[in-house]
Amino acid sequence: MFDKTKLIIAFGSNFEPQINIAKAKQQLSSIFETTEFSSEIWTDPINIKSEKFINCIAIAETSFDLNSVLSSLKDIEDLCGNTIEKRKCGKVIMDVDILKYGDTIMHNDDWKRPYIIQLLKELHINIK
């Protein structure tokens, strides 16, 4: 039996965000064990000219290695219809990022964003 690794995943969309966030939640729940979601909040775009985003955080457990998790998250983005071309036009159909895999912190700048801090606190995740 494999040990379970705790994940913290941030995801957001600025194009049909309610529909795409729901799709992402469904996919995350089907891939990862014991998935818990924060509330969904509207946020202003960062470093992009676009519509507002809906953002959310998931906490999950998995026995998958990091590369498998990254591949699964890329599949979710693709399933929602995300493409590089659409991003160049300011449409982020779905962006899914790992904030933490086990003890490994990823996307360091994201941890400083007010909405990330708010959603992590909502899920009782200590921020250092």
UniProtKB/TrEMBL annotation:
Domain of life: Bacteria
InterPro entries in the cross-refs: Hppk, Hppk_sf
Enzyme Commission number: 2.7.6.3
Coiled coil start-end: none
Keywords: ATP-binding, Folate biosynthesis, Kinase, Nucleotide-binding, Transferase
Function statement: Catalyzes the transfer of pyrophosphate from adenosine triphosphate (ATP) to 6-hydroxymethyl-7,8-dihydropterin, an enzymatic step in folate biosynthesis pathway.
The protein, known as: 2-amino-4-hydroxy-6-hydroxymethyldihydropteridine pyrophosphokinase
